Amino acid sequence: MTLPILHTGILRALKLALFLAVLVYVGRELAARLAALPAIATVVAYPQLFAGAALATAASILYVPIYGQMQRALAIRPSPLAPAVVALVSPVGKYLPGKVASLLGAIWIYRRFGVSAGTATGITLLTGAANFAAVSLLLLPFIASGAFQRYDSPWLTWLFPGVWVGGLVLAFPRIFANLLNRVARLAGRPAVALVPRTAPYLSGVAWSGFQLVLMGGAFWFVARAVSPVAVADWYLLTVSLMVAGTLGFFAFFAPAGIGVREGLLLLLLRSVIGDSELALALILLRVNQVLIEGLLALVGLVLWRLFQQDQWPGRKRALKGK
Q1: CA distance 118 to 203
Q2: Is residue 268 within 8 Å of 142, Cβ to Cβ?
Q3: Where are the alpha helices (DSSP H) in 76-197?
Q4: Cα(314)–Cα(305) distance, integer angstroms
Q5: In this structure, are residues 83 and 211 in contact, taking their beta carbons and an 8 Å threshold?
Q6: Which of 54, 70, 93, 294 could form a disulfide with 102 if both were Cys (CB 3.0 to 4.6 A apart)?
Q7: Could you give the CA distance from residue 312 to residue 229 in angstroms, rounded to a whole number?
Q8: Cα 240 to Cα 119, 237, 270, distances in angstroms
Q9: How far apart are CA 136 and CA 225, in angstroms?
Q10: Contact, 200 vs 70, CB < 8 A?
Q11: What is the domain partition of the chain in residue ranges?
């Protein structure tokens, strides 16, 4: 028993050390760039900032139809409230240490609505696969046009094709589930079989693509609030945010990709937005996201409590045999 405990302790310490190293490095870079700005209150254009917040809110709410389509893909019909509660509440789990808190939170909520653990896991995995598929589709014009070759650094140049290929592979539900099932077996968890219906799954991919477009628009408005970025730069900001967000998701040591996403965007967009303005835009984008997801989680909990009291966690309603 000593070795597994020691191994777990070393892994946690390593993850914490990596996270702190990234946080310190990116934090110092952001602080150095912000030092060149005058008072922030005189720099920020608040109408554009609020427009960005509105688009980011709409993008977060789009998780509701995405989860709804994944339910249809697996031919289940729990309470109509289930996808709303899962979509609004579970995203805050990504701010906890590790990469599975949001996934486990979604599964736990579905269990409260009478969905079996295997089916709930399938829904959440399909949601992730749909996101990767949408990322690959939206990256395709950027790859096909050769625009990714704009960067001086070779690793930045091939970062976009790498994410595109990886997203394309993971977009197939069976492949995505197979990779995660390998991890589940290592952790002693049961495997999950995914056989989704095609039409609802593709509809979920379309909703995911629309969500990414809205998030790109939110980023553009936030950037526009501090810098005169052109409308033509919207697509570059969108694909850069997608790539940085995807890599931040896979950064196992960083909750919600904090630090990783910001560090990559500092590198990817330095030729589009001034250093100081970009640093401020990234901080405002992150603060916006945290506040919006926190508020939507509260809304989801209120809806759950008011309209589905028999599924509320405080009720002693057993879900045996599910």
Answers
A1: 22
A2: no
A3: 82-89, 101-112, 117-144, 154-157, 159-170, 173-186
A4: 10
A5: no
A6: 93
A7: 46
A8: 33, 5, 11
A9: 29
A10: yes
A11: 2-311
Mean pLDDT of each 10-residue bin along the chain, 322 residues long: 53 73 78 72 83 96 96 88 93 76 86 87 88 91 82 76 83 74 66 78 95 97 93 93 88 78 90 88 94 95 79 50 42
What pTM does this model have? 0.85
Return the exposure string of 9-19: e unless at least 16 CB atoms fall within 10 Å of the residue's CB, then b.
Answer: eeeeeebeebb
What are 165's two structure tokens?
């290929």
Look at residue 310 in the predicted model and tell me its pLDDT.
Answer: 56
Contact 280, 219 (CB under 8 A): no
Q: What is residue 257's DSSP assignment?
A: G
Tokens 């295997």 label which residue? 118
Structure-token pair, residue 270: 């330095």
CA nearest to 21, candidates 156, 102, 29, 97: 29
Q: What is the CA radius of gyration of the chain?
A: 20
Among 234, 223, 274, CA closest to 48: 223
What count of residues does the chain have?
322
